[in-house]
Amino acid sequence: MNVLIDKFDVFAGGFWLTLQICVLAAIGALLLGAVVAVLRISPVPPLRAVGTAYVNIFRNMPLTVVLFFAAFGLPALGSNADFLRIPGLDAIFSRLGTDLPYFRFGLIALVLYTAAFVCEALRSGVNAVPAGQAEAARSLGLTFGQNLRHVVLPQSWKASVVPLGSVIIAMIKNSALVGFFGVVGDLAQTADQLTSAGGYAFIPVAIGISVGYLIMTVPLGALLDRLEKRQAVAR
Amino acid sequence: MSQQNTVLYDVPGPRQRRITLISSIVATVVLLVGAYFLIYRPLEEKGQFSMELWGPLVDPSNESFSQVWDRLGLGLKNTLTAAALAIVSSLVVGTLLAVLRIQLKSLARRRFTGLATPLSYLLRGLSTVLSAVTRVCVEVFRGLPVVITIFFVARGFPEFGVTFDTLWYLVIGLTIYNSVVIAEILRSGMEGLPGGQGEAAAAIGLSPLQSTRMILLPQAFRIMLPALISQLVVVLKDTSLGFIISYEETLSIGKQIIGVLDNPIQVYVVIAAIFIAVNYSLSKLAQYVQHRLSRGRKSAPRTGAADTELGTEAVAGTTT
């Protein structure tokens, strides 16, 4: 059991790195997902087709394949994902600026994959708004933008918070996969490292790693349950 | 498509149609130019479109074509085997788990009247503890990443001297995670049923187990079928994690092919296409089933249908 105490800094470092990946990927996925959602509900057919194709491709592809694509495809496109070395941001998340690009590749893959689910969560929220609401807004003479801002989005937001939350939880869990793709030092890779190379007993390591993930996922899940119950009452 | 957008737009008039047409053309041109300069050109410069790289995958006259597809076929077979086993076992285990949790919950509420007081307290305590234990197990395994579960299974079982084929590690790992998720889907389906269903079952003298088996479970299955199918898509996608424990599924085979032919992008494009084709048809099946179900239950209130749809999306998100 003393591996948990001896190697506490390793576990803590892994947890911290996983948390960094999750925060960055969540921000990226929410932004990209919002863009794709806008594409999917836009009035211009080609943009809609692009959005639909994006969602269908990334929702039906295993994340593993997306990760492989990021790791092999981006270099072939002549990019080492250096555009993610955003000044200022890479001071906080030091891994963004390192020369080994796997952290950035993993991040890009997670963002691309999760954005498809974020898009669907947002869109299902918009679709959950009764048609009469937008019709009433239009008949009052609100423009498209006003309609979205004052009538549709506030309501759709309520309907998409819970799905969005579960998408983010899923993303936290998916981030474990990045550790098997050359991102050294996150929780999943720590498990591998300590049990195979470090030669530590399996059970304590497993407990440590599990606790690391559960700290992130369980409170978020409980929060979502609460939100869901409150919304169910409000409805 | 127009149906989905009626929420936001009126039926376009002539002017709006013209604007839409013009912006469509502009958008198409911009997208094509962007794709050409950002994707096609760099790939072309690196020679990624050469027949040397694509040949073994698409050209039947290439000498390695049949070999490559033999291997890929084997990988696909292994993927589907693992997926089928994992799906069947997680459905069975998940159903049992859901029934167990419902039973324990109702047991924890029971008073055990007619027994000696200490005994009834003991029984109540026991059932409360059991129900808490199952709850904790469910929360733990739902909160852990599947990768980690599979990895733990593959590393942990040999630790205790239990060794299997890698196939079984993968199946066990997937089953642990997905049975818990399926149990939660079914449980929420059963708890979402109108209370009158369970009460009526109790009133005609069915035991709690009987009423779960004959009244609640079938309805929960029916309501939650779309969510279940999307969970099955997730299982199929997750079998690709087998490469971590070096199970020979499609991706590891792809890796072997890449090791020989050195054409990673081409092989992954083909593998992605295979996965997308299979999963897309499964998702379409889910949509069709949902459509059939909502048509079959015309009498049910409209909000109910909307809720299940949302639930499906949420579940599809939760569990990937």
Describe this structure in words.
The complex is a heterodimer of chains A (235) and B (320). By secondary structure, chain A is mainly alpha-helical. Chain A has a single domain, classed as MetI-like fold, CATH 1.10.3720. Chain A has ten helices and no strands. The longest helix of chain A is centred in the first third of the chain and has 34 residues, at 8-41. The radius of gyration of chain A is 21 Å and the shape is globular. The mean pLDDT of chain A is 82. Chain B has one domain (66-318): Orthogonal Bundle (MetI-like fold), CATH 1.10.3720. Chain B contains twelve helices and no strands. Chain B is mainly α and 320 residues long. Chain B is flat, with a radius of gyration of 26 Å. In chain B, helix 4 runs antiparallel to helix 10. The model of chain B is unreliable at 299-320 (pLDDT under 50). Chain B has helices spanning 2-5, 14-45, 51-58, 65-109, 117-143, 146-159, 166-191, 195-203, 208-238, 250-261, 264-296, 302-318. The interface between A and B is large, with 67 and 65 residues.
Highlighted features:
heterodimer; A: 235 residues; mainly alpha; MetI-like fold; B: mainly alpha
How are the elements arranged and paired?
The complex is a heterodimer of chains A (235) and B (320).
Chain A: H1 3-6, H2 8-41, H3 45-60, H4 63-76, H5 89-92, H6 102-128, H7 131-139, H8 144-174, H9 187-197, H10 202-234
Helix pairs in contact in A: 2-3, 2-6, 2-9, 2-10, 3-6, 4-6, 6-8, 7-8, 8-10, 9-10
Chain B: H1 2-5, H2 14-45, H3 51-58, H4 65-109, H5 117-143, H6 146-159, H7 166-191, H8 195-203, H9 208-238, H10 250-261, H11 264-296, H12 302-318
Question: What's this model, at a glance?
Answer:
Chain A is built from 10 helices and no strands.
